[in-house]
Amino acid sequence: MDQISATPGVAGQPGGPEFGRMIEALRTVQAAITGAAPPPEVSAEVGAILETVAGALEPYLVGEDEQLSGHRDDLPGRGQPLLPPLWLDERDETHLRGRVTFDRFHLGGNGAAHGGAITVLFDEMLGRLANAGRNRARTKYLQVEYHRITPLDTELRVEAKIARVEGRKRFLTCALYDGEHLTADAEGLFVELLPGQP
Ligand SMILES: CCCCCCCC(=O)SCCNC(=O)CCNC(=O)[C@H](O)C(C)(C)COP(=O)(O)OP(=O)(O)OC[C@H]1O[C@@H](n2cnc3c(N)ncnc32)[C@H](O)[C@@H]1OP(=O)(O)O
After folding, report:
1. For ligand 1, atom 42, which residue shows the shortest CA distance?
2. Contact call for residues 113 and 120 (beta carbons, < 8 A)
3. What is the band of 135 on the pLDDT scale with cuts at 50, 70, 90?
4. Per-domain residue ranges of the chain
5. pLDDT over 90 (residue 12)
6. Which CATH class is domain 83-192?
7. What is the ipTM of this complex?
8. Residue 107: pLDDT band by 50, 70, 90 thresholds?
9. Where is the Thioesterase domain (predicted)?
């Protein structure tokens, strides 16, 4: 997590565009599986293919510091499939602004994004900002309010700001918009780690 590379990877090297394509394909698969009601033979076939996929990657499993997922700032959501695809367009040490699209994989119900998926987005936004150019901090609390449903398959705007810093405490806010409509917002406290805190 400490080393996030913003440099696009080189074709033919680990972390190159082939890696980004694999993550993109995984996102497509997640949405397709969530949204499908396949007959049993198709479920069995797809399950076998996915087991083969996991087997193909097994020889290349590495420790957290060496993994590519989560460390690729040139990819949406850092190439971390847990995160919805998030593109950061503006960033400095006081604010972040980006675009995000939730898809079928992030469905809560009745066409609305799952509240937990929105919270993951907010924790990511606030965590990125809380740690921008500063010593490492972790989320102490994150208080989220859902004002209206957050639609799927729609490009949304997300903005985070530093509200205030008090010693080790960094208070931040984040807001998610569908056009001009605020769908959800959050306030969070991040606390700078002391030496020895993991
Ligand atoms: C670049 C990558 C982006 C990804 C970002 C992802 C971010 C994350 O998700 S991090 C993972 C989730 N978070 C965690 O796992 C954190 C787990 N918790 C911890 O490690 C610790 O509790 C930690 C480090 C946050 C704080 O621990 P600790 O040093 O004991 O702090 P503590 O003494 O309790 O509190 C520090 C200050 O905050 C204050 N505080 C604590 N809780 C609250 C609260 N609920 N409300 C207001 N103030 C509070 C305390 O009063 C204290 O204030 P002061 O310094 O003025 O006395």
Report:
1. 140
2. no
3. very high
4. 1-72, 83-192
5. no
6. alpha beta
7. 0.96
8. very high
9. 110-181
